[in-house]
Design brief:
alpha/beta, 12 strands, Aldehyde Dehydrogenase, Chain A, domain 1, globular, Aldehyde Dehydrogenase, Chain A, domain 2
Length: 348
Amino acid sequence: MSKFNTKELITIFSKLGEQLSNPDATLTELINNEHIYNAWFTPESVENATKAIGNMLNEADLTAWLTKYNIEKNSISKKVGLILAGNIPLVGFHDVLCVLVTGNHALIKASVQDARLIKHVLEKLVTIDNRFATQFSFVERLVDFDAVIATGSNNSSRYFEYYFGKVPNIIRKNRNSVAVITGNETKEQLYNLGHDVFDYFGLGCRNVSKLLIPIGYDLATFFEAIEPYKAIINHNKYNNNYGYNRSIFLVGSEQHLDNNFLILKEDERLTSPLAVLFYSYYDDLKSAEGLINTQAENIQCVVSTAPLNVKSQVVDFGQSQHPQLWDYADGIDTMDFLTNLHTFEAER
């Protein structure tokens, strides 16, 4: 049974949001040093992720989100195993948040790539209200659980389905995001699209890995707008990926465009290698919608200002890595799943 009413949860998590938006000395030190353990987690990336969550945890949005669900109806606390990804900083926080606010117990198997940040954030939460201290545990192996939320690759998802298929579960696979360009974008909008491509080095499922462009579109316009992001090539691991993929394309005589920090290649696939952005042409918006809808199960979100009729979430340029509380991964309502775990048990 939940120890908190909805009003208390809004107050507690809005306080946590304030602390993440305005890092203290301890959190600042963690932000600045995380790259020692994971080279992809640069101070800029960790700060962006931390403040994005802080901004998400505001009183107005928490109120709109939490009051949609009958949280206080939960009579029994369930143990929910969480297998968190580690591709970008704090990527598993939303799953942890959902488990905690629904009054369930989170059994957290953190990624080795991102274990320190999530532990520190939860330590802050306990400092705000120590009743949360008994509502989560960090574990090396999931045992004695009532439900599971696991995030991984297409390969690991098969493992997850085999081991966790007998309990209520949400199992997430690889997804990528797409941008639809119409040719009417301003230079500022295309610059903002650069955030969707380059934030967190393109490692997130909400990062754009594929452009859909109208026939005849001049990609030089896009290259010109994203020129301010050129410093990304100074990151050693990104540079290594860029150099490797450029070599592969050159040796294979594969046609591509290159601005010395990003490679554009015409390709029907959604998932592009790091430092590479695939693109495809479309005839009209209806055909673009068709391309998106046929791949809906592989798309996390679509970045565009075009009036698209698609199954996937559509966000404005520059906003793919700023989801709101109700923007659920893979379009699966995590809160609905967690508040109705008792119904799964009744069905078994």
